[in-house]
Design brief:
The chain is of the alpha+beta class. It has five helices and ten strands, in the order βαββαβββαβββααβ.
Length: about 250
């Protein structure tokens, strides 16, 4: 009998061309599917909770796979980790109903973007943050970040050439916190356009008026796209699974 397994994992994205399989390039999805094939003995396509760009990380990422194997879900996480590289880690595998979808069953996702602001490079943070020394206006980023909150047309914050037609999204939380040289921008929303969070961060760092950029619905009105290395998918909330939605 076919079962659906939900896999919770984290990964460093620096060595991968994103999550989704791409021909001729290493991806998180491809690496995970290979490990599952070795353990479950058949083709096990994986469906992710969303795309991530090349170089983007995940503190919490969810994907599903369907299999007729009777491999115990509570033992699969350890078995997968024994067959995965050190930059991908599975923390939990549970069985979920067949109608559960890792993308469409999510109520919201939260991304974190980290900027290391001192002049000197921090070798321990270099792989997972954007080294952008001040004097950009850190206080201005903190003050203006909440202006993104609410339901808006985010056409100005979508990468040029994207084919998405419906560019309205709702941002439930956008805040910036500064601590010991690291500026972290947290963005929680019901969905995101291609490069949206990175363009939001670029707009904040460059001091561009957020309200005007949103109203323009024109990519040229917003800031540059911040580097991928500072971005991580931090949390995905599924009401059907319960847990803390905060």
């Amino acid at each position: 009998m076919e079962r659906q397994l939900l896999i919770k994992l984290s990964f460093l994205g620096g060595a991968y061309a994103g999550f989704q399989v791409q021909k001729g390039a290493p991806t998180v999805q491809g690496t995970l599917q290979q490990a599952l094939r070795l353990l479950l003995g058949d083709e096990v396509p994986v469906t992710g909770c969303g795309r991530t760009d090349a170089g983007v990380h995940a503190l919490e990422y969810f994907c599903t796979t369907r299999t007729a194997s009777d491999f115990a879900a509570d033992k699969l996480a350890r078995a997968l980790n024994a067959n995965l590289p050190g930059d991908i880690s599975v923390s939990e595998v549970i069985e979920v109903p067949l109608d559960f979808h890792p993308r469409y069953s999510a109520a919201w996702k939260e991304y974190h973007y980290r900027i290391w602001t001192p002049r000197y490079r921090n070798v321990f943070e270099a792989a997972t943050s954007w080294h952008h020394p001040a004097p950009f206006d850190v206080a201005g980023v903190i003050q203006n970040a909440p202006l993104f909150e609410g339901a808006h047309d985010f056409a100005s914050f979508m990468a040029a050439g994207s084919s998405i037609e419906d560019t309205r999204r709702t941002i439930y939380l956008c805040e910036a916190v500064y601590s010991q040289g690291m500026l972290t921008v947290r963005v929680r929303g019901d969905g995101f356009l291609y490069h949206m969070v990175r363009i939001m961060v670029g707009t904040l760092v460059e001091g561009i008026d957020v309200t005007s950029a949103i109203a323009a619905c024109d990519r040229s009105a917003a800031g540059s796209t911040a580097p991928a290395c500072g971005l991580a998918l931090a949390k995905v909330y599924y009401p059907a699974l319960g847990g803390d939605p905060s």
